[in-house]
Amino acid sequence: MVYASQPETGLSKKITIQSLRKLKSQGEKFVSVSLYDAPMAAMAERCGVEVVLVGDSLGMTVLGYDSTIPVTMEQMIYHIEAVARGNRKSLIIGDLPFMTYATPEQAMVNATRVMQAGAHMVKIEGGRWLAPVVTMLSERGIPVCAHIGLTPQSVYKFGGFRVQGRTPESAAILLEDALILERAGADIVLFECVPADLARKATASLEVPTIGIGAGRDTDAQVLVINDILGLTEQPPKFSKNFLAETGTIKGALLRYTADVKTGIFPGDEHIFT
Ligand code: KIV
Predict the structure, then answer these.
(1) pTM of the model
(2) 213 CB less than 6 Å from ligand 1?
(3) For residue 94, how far is its CA from the centre of ligand 1 (angstroms)?
(4) Is 192 a catalytic residue?
(5) Whose CA is nearest to atom 1 of ligand 1?
(6) Measured on CA atoms in the order 211, 214, 217, 222, is the torsion positive or negative?
(7) For residue 68, which atom of ligand 1 is closest to its CA?
(8) Beta-strand runs (E) in the chain
(9) Residue 148: which of 168, 121, 169, 176 has the closest Cα?
(10) By CB neighbour count within 10 A (0-12 exposed, 13-18 middle, 19+ buried), where does 63 fall?
């Protein structure tokens, strides 16, 4: 069924870290999509997506690998450049791939490449051990999104794509990690696959905005992978939703996703881990 016209809500101005902080302070949700090419990046801008993530999920969604581990710097750069050519107003976050930020010095070199490719912020996965890396980048002017919870680059350590922070002890460690990473200089903390309660507490405790995926509805923003939004994933994760199925067009799907995040309709109870 084609969804009745959803107004186009294109971004009126360039999104910055300050705009995101302002939205958080006003209690207004913002929207993020992980995507990988110029036309989709342009469509996201026209549909009001404030944050575009060029995620290393592209290893699985575009390149056919069964994890993000094989993704290289060259592949990330190629896709970040394409996205940056297609989108002028969203804040673009570029992932640093597996083992490219194991030391602060290595992170510096690789984050520089990601920023020069057109990203406005880099995303790195990990807990408190990342603090020196975050500080190194942040002090030198590179904004950082710290990704915690289910960090897919550690899939073999976790033994699968599993929800994290389910026990009181592990939830307390994740909450402390988030605070440590904020103190180290992170500008955004992204929570993947954690109980809603943990993400809610963290969002209330952190000054910087939070983005959630499979982290309940109380983070400051939601992110989904474009393939999931468009129903391209054979076995979609519980936290995702095929918005194309109910709207009939790519633009309709992105507009509906944006509207549903902003109004708190998405995620629904069925998408949330408790
Ligand atoms: O790589 C990616 O797309 C991500 C999101 C799923 C958060 O990290």
Answers:
(1) 0.96
(2) yes
(3) 10
(4) yes
(5) 55
(6) positive
(7) 1
(8) 30-34, 51-54, 91-95, 121-125, 144-149, 188-192, 210-213, 221-225
(9) 176
(10) middle
